[in-house]
Amino acid sequence: MSQTLVQAWNAAKARLQAAGVDGPVIDARLLVEAAAGASRTDIIADPRRVLTEEQAATLESFIARRERREPVSHILGRKGFWKIMLQVTADVLTPRPDTETLVELVLRELPEAKPFSVLDLGVGSGAILLAILAERPAGKGLGVDVSDEALAVARENAANLGLAGRVALLRGDWTRGLGDASFDLVVANPPYVRSAEIAGLAPEVRDHEPRLALDGGPDGLDAYRELAPEILRVLKPGCPFAVEIGFDQSTEVEALFKAAGAEAVATHKDLANRDRVVAGAKSF
Ligand code: GLN
Q1: For residue 194, how far is the Cα from the chain centroid?
Q2: Tens digits of residue pLDDT in 56-71
């Protein structure tokens, strides 16, 4: 039976809702748009457009995947973050709006035209690093990740955004091998979920996102313990850092950076008013 855009949207909504998907209205619209090659306005302006058989089959496969709680970003292979569009696979953490808090914070501190070098530890899809460089043409960046698959995604994203010439992407174990006092800014969104809490995460995250990017060890703080002194080592004197944290980790992460000698350590909230970023600077 041939379906119109609006019928397809309604049917998809109902199925996703029944599958327990959070936000079925938006997800249904995104999947219908992608399957039918329709724009956001088409679905409103031309709701009676009929899906071709091929489009209907594509939509069916998209909905079936979403019913199994695969994230929309994996089904579509892309996700918007800050002002850029990123390719996304199951090998990288899907960029989250929470992380835009970190981008906004560091962009506020970075003058438009001044050259700088930024290091992104655990670069994943490249979301943070590329969002920064896309807005600061004088910047250059290094992204490090332990996953070759993630680096391949970041490379593709850098190329798609025309940023490949200003980005180096290297496989590595955090800061190992990087020189002292080398960067004007260090950012990271390390794994910070407590190991025991992973089983209780939403299926989209638990079953479809890389554990490597989520699991922060027994108390969720393993990465920060390792990173705090290392971030201060590779920063130039007087230069800032910003790391994403879990909403209940501010006290512990601030303490780790203070113990490593950081100055002006402070926690910043996300749009939902939860603690989300710890930032500070290396002293002169
Ligand atoms: N914010 C992510 C989540 O709760 C975790 C990201 C991370 O560990 N860096 O799913």
Answers
A1: 19
A2: 999 999 999 999 999 9
Which range of residues forms the domain containing residue 272?
A: 78-282
Nearest Cα to Cα of residue 217 among 188, 246, 186: 246
Does the CB atom of residue 154 touch ligand 1 within 6 A? no
How far is ligand 1, taken at its centre, from the CA of residue 201, in Å? Answer: 10
What are the tokens at 251?
């006290």
In whole angstroms, give the CA distance from residue 248 to residue 95: 20
Question: Cβ(276)–Cβ(245) under 8 Å?
Answer: yes
Q: What global pTM score does this model have?
A: 0.95
CATH number for position 36: 1.10.8.10
Tell me the three state secondary structure of residue 277.
strand
Q: Are residues 56 and 84 in the same domain?
A: no
| Ligand 1 atom 2: residue of nearest CA | 214
Among 244, 247, 270, 274, name the best residue to mutate to test ligand 1's pocket (greatest count of ligand atoms within 8 A of Cβ).
244
100 & 52 share domain: no
Residue with the smallest CA separation from ligand 1 atom 5 is: 214
Task: Verify that 191 and 253 share a domain, yes or no.
Answer: yes
Q: Are residues 220 and 133 in the same domain?
A: yes
DSSP β-ladder status, 84-87 and 78-81? antiparallel
Q: Which amino acid is at 8?
A: A
Q: Does residue 213 fall inside a structural domain? A: yes
pLDDT tens for residues 39-50?
A: 989 988 999 999
Residues 89/204/64/126 CA torsion (nearest 10 deg)? -20
- As a whole number of angstroms, the distance between CA 175 and CA 235 comes to 11
Best residue for ligand 1 mutational test, from 92, 96, 209 (most atoms within 8 Å of Cβ): 96
Nearest CA to ligand 1 atom 1: 246
Domain boundary among 36, 68, 100: 68
